[in-house]
Amino acid sequence: MRAGLFGGTFNPIHLGHLRAAEEICEALTLDRMVFIPANIPPHKEGHELAAPTVRERCVAAAISENPLFELSRVELDREGPSYSIDTIKHFVAEYSGAELWFIVGEDAFAEIGSWYQFKELFSLVNIAVMSRPPGIKAHILPSIMEEEFFAEEWGYIHSSGNAVRFVSVTPLDISSTAIREAIRAGRSIRYLVPETVREILEKEDHFGPGE
Questions:
Q1: How many Cβ atoms sit within 10 Å of the Cβ of residue 54?
Q2: What is the pLDDT of residues 121-142, one digit of tens each?
Q3: Backbone phi, then psi, for 14, in 5-degree steps?
Q4: What fold characterizes domain 2-204?
Q5: Is 129 helix (H, G, I), strand (E, B) or coil?
Q6: 62-102-104-36 Cα dihedral, nearest 10 degrees
Q7: What is the pLDDT of residues 37-89, one digit of tens each?
Q8: Is the bond leading into 41 cis (omega within 30 degrees of zero)?
Q9: pLDDT tier, 189 (very low <50, low <70, confident <90, very high otherwise)
Q10: Geometric angle at alpha carbon 114, from 113 and 115, rounded to 5°
Q11: Which of 89, 106, 149, 186 is 20 to 30 Å from the Cα of 195, by its Cα?
Q12: CA angle at 56 for the pair 54 and 59, rounded to the nearest 5°
């Protein structure tokens, strides 16, 4: 089995997330893509987040019609910060023998040297970096990691044998930040998120003033 691990705050999930996941599934011939909403993301301010239960509901609603997509509560059920290394170790154990791909954006990848126990990630899992055309920036490894990697045309091979591969995805100009701002301002978010997600967010006002 080949599975993708797609973590994030999904605050909220939108069509850019879904389209990227679809294209990565196709590029890497994945059998499933696991969406993993974070409980307490260590790199983001928690006061700007909708409640974990709300973000979970939105992800579940957004992915319900795609048979390759599934939701995991592993980070929502874990107390404390949602460190990627803990999540990856969970799936390595749960999907023993599977080929796992950890999905990360190119901006986050450029800062991976600041992640908790980041060096261990590469010996545990393959990494797919979502690269938006032309993606030149993404093909430069953070200097702190260079000695452990061997360059390939499509990315890098880590000394453990795992890969770092750059996957070009369609650059949809949609952001969770802009969606939250639109909701607060009373503007439409139709066609930025799935209709099922729009109904949850607009009817229940999870990003009102002060949240």
A1: 18
A2: 999 999 999 987 655 454 566 6
A3: -140, 180
A4: Rossmann fold (3.40.50)
A5: strand
A6: 30
A7: 999 877 665 457 888 999 999 999 999 999 999 999 999 999 888 899 999 99
A8: no
A9: very high
A10: 95
A11: 106
A12: 110
What's residue 133's pLDDT? 63
User: Chain-centre distance of CA 124, in angstroms?
Assistant: 17
Number of Cβ within a 10 Å radius of residue 22: 16
SS3 189: coil
The C-alpha atoms of residue 43 and residue 187 are separated, in whole angstroms, by 28
Tokens for 119, please give them: 């060096």
Q: At residue 206, does pLDDT exceed 70?
A: no
Residue 97 gets which letter from DSSP?
T
Phi (first) and psi of residue 105, to 5 degrees: -75, 160
pTM above 0.70?
A: yes
User: In the chain, what is the straight-line distance between the N-terminal and C-terminal CA atoms, in Å?
Assistant: 41
Which sign, positive or negative, has the C-alpha torsion 193, 42, 90, 144?
Answer: positive
Which amino acid, 155? G
Closest CA to 134 of 88, 166, 178: 166
Q: Containing H/E element for 99? A: strand 99-105
Q: Which residues are CB-neighbours of 157 under 8 A, at least 6 positions away? A: 149, 150, 163, 164
Strand, helix or coil at 209? coil
> How many whole angstroms separate alpha carbon 201 and alpha carbon 206?
6
**Of 158, 163, 207, 164, the residue nearest 184 (C-alpha):** 207
Task: Note the residue count of the chain.
Answer: 211
